[in-house]
Design brief:
Number of strands: 15
Radius of gyration: 30 Å
Shape: elongated
Mean pLDDT: 92
Number of domains: 1
CATH class: Mainly Beta
Largest sheet: 8 strands, antiparallel
Structural class: mainly beta
Bound molecules: magnesium ion
CATH superfamily: Exo-inulinase, domain 1
Distance between the termini: 82 Å
Length: 261
């Protein structure tokens, strides 16, 4: 009798299961709604309106911080926090090598930087790193090389547009001495771990005269003249322009502006 009862129980369960699947098959669900264009579009927030600069007048975009407009170095100081001692003349600023590096008073995180530079005509005796050497330091830590590499070879990870002693540029896009070169630099600041190492390394895109030299390149650490990159925890930092100790005539800069990102 007991066996009989169990047998019927199994049979009952099996019957229920069949009924359940069958009921589910018969249940009607709404059909997936067909996609319409508006389903994947959103309208807010709208990007802020930025009036572009005018290349004819070298004006900056409307939301840029103008760091040098040809008139004065009020946005700059030397490494001791004193007045920047470079020579402003004819709408440009020329390196005064005796005065040392200059740096922005304001500190920056991630940014878009526009800076134009011109190497003067000079004697052929100045070669390699001793020809129009300067540099743009990002957050005061990482040098994008400035150098006259027009018919002037040097170690490739030290030429114009290199992340100095780390990553060579992908091209040599130099204009002749006496002509203006344009750097547009897009920089993403690093994120550090508690222990001071990078969680995310700094990254940089460098465009010279419309030619990409660095494409979102990871920066490995500080750009040392002697030795390998060092990782040093830091926050926002200034743009530093290098006064290099080589004996060649100092280069000039103009039309410098920056947009925070
Ligand atoms: Mg340099």
């Amino acid at each position: 009798m007991k066996m009989f009862s169990l047998k019927w129980s199994f049979a009952g369960l099996a019957a229920c299961s069949v009924l359940s699947v069958s009921a589910q098959e018969q249940k009607q669900y709404p059909e997936q709604e067909a996609m319409r264009p508006g389903m994947s579009e959103y309208w807010t927030p709208q990007p802020k309106i930025v009036t572009p600069g005018n290349p004819a007048t070298n004006s900056a975009p409307s939301d840029a911080i103008v760091l040098f407009d040809g008139k004065d170095l009020s946005a700059w100081e030397n490494s001791k926090g004193e007045a920047a001692g470079w020579d402003v003349h004819d709408g440009v600023v020329t390196v005064n090598k005796k005065a040392g590096d200059i740096q922005t008073k304001e500190k920056f995180g991630s940014f878009q930087l526009h800076i134009e530079w011109c190497v003067p005509q000079m004697d052929a005796q100045f070669t390699s790193q001793f020809r129009g050497n300067s540099g743009v330091y990002l957050q005061g830590m990482y040098e994008v090389q400035v150098l006259d590499n027009y018919n002037n070879e040097t170690y490739v990870n030290g030429q114009a547009g290199s992340i100095y002693k780390q990553t060579p540029p992908m091209a040599n896009a130099m204009r002749k001495p006496g002509e203006w070169n344009v750097y547009d630099i897009i920089y993403t600041a690093p994120v550090f771990k508690e222990d001071g190492t990078y969680l995310y390394r700094p990254r940089v895109t460098v465009i010279q005269n419309g030619v990409v030299l660095q494409n979102n390149t990871e920066i490995l650490g500080t750009t040392e003249y002697i030795g390998f990159p060092q990782v040093k925890k830091h926050g926002d930092g200034p743009i530093i322009l290098q006064s290099h100790g080589d004996p060649s005539p100092g280069i000039s800069f103009r039309n410098i502006w920056i947009r925070k990102m």
